Structure prediction request, 493 residues.
Amino acid sequence: MSADLLLRAVRVAGAGRELLPDTEPVDILIRGGVIADVAPTGNLRAAVDVLDGGGSWVIPGLWDHHVHTVQWALTAQREPLHDAVSAADAAARMSVVAPLGDGRRIGTGFRDALWPDIPSRELLDRSTGDVPTYLLNADVHSVWLNSAALRREGFEGRDDDGMLREEPAFEISRRLNDVDDALADAAVAEAARRAAARGVVGLVDFDMGWNAGAWTRRLKAGFDLHRVEFAVYPHHLDRAIAEGLRTGDPFGDGDLVRMGPLKVIADGSLGTRTAACSHGYDDLPANHGALTVPPGQLHELLGRAAGAGIEAAVHAIGDVTVTAALDAFTDTGQTGTIEHAQLVRHADLARFARLGIAASTQPRHALDDRALIDLLWSSQTSIAYPIASLHAAGAGIRFGSDAPVSPLDPWIAISAAVTRKGEDGERWHPEERVDIDTALRASAHHGTDGTSAVTPGAVADLALCGVDPRAADAAALRTMPVLATLVAGRRTH
Prediction:
């Protein structure tokens, strides 16, 4: 799974740059998948393949620290609804979508909190008739179904708006993602090729299925496009412990796939108005969201996982949940990450660093959610999407996409983090920007706590950029040309 290679005439733009005397091109010798030497161009000789970088810029390969792999891969087969302007618009668009092979129509990416009308089962039935139709919210915490879909899934007794939220919505997602293995694996491979073309060398897989089995199957079929650390959920924790799975252990032959953390979803989301917050939501002040895992249960889960050598990744969006998660980490001695951390109390910022808990954030969400934040969270006193504040407090930062919630493209996340500027050119809370060096480190393995660097002794997971990322503006970062991607010195793109 590794290769010998001489990477010729490249400029180091990421971690490792600080060790070089100037910005002139260098040659990088890779042996056995590890960087063996770095020297001024023309000074290294070796009987290995040569890849001429032509003066391009090399950085440590990029990771997406939060991906729902199968759901992300299957998104290409689903109707995009991110630009639907109303419930009526979304329903009308689904009426002309061709059903998939299993007879279902599936749309994805809507944001009903921004719609002027209210989704209802009656409205969706009028447009979609007897064809089972499913619309997945952009945040994946709610699903809008017509009557045919509710009957098919065994929820026909509900006399409501057709909207399932939180665990029932997750159950629907699990069912929609439970497609034929060959279909799922082909979609994952195609999506992985697209990711490699954006410089991705690894991801953390948060699919809700038994990922150990899925990745065993894919490795046997020859999957080799990127590294994977896969999570387990509470309903599979006993099985993972019984099978001796420990965070960081290689899985299968080689070290391409490793066991990751226990994933616990401790609250809801902003868009579904279920994230647990200190203050109520602006459109319904009595609604503060809710913890979906009570503190006692969260402590028990984290403690049991820690005792088995499994780290934890706790989904916590609201500030109440972030506090509860930090309390659970404190009391159990568990290590790992808080996923999302979209609303954080000022007093909790420094606790991340004291506990050694990394904030696994999705910078693009700050831009995608601007309208929702202004609409629903304007009365909150905690800090929304506090990447710079967390970093300044000493917290480890890891970047990801939460794909399919936002695109699996680290350059979109990097651009958002460095500029806080969307395609419309407007900045949102620029005080939470981070510099490009921090963003590149946060986008490499284990983020700012990791050791990825272009330096002798480091694993040769690298990306070759056609533009200097340290001199690029928001648009240039989003559209960064990636000339080559290497995993252990082996070209995946």
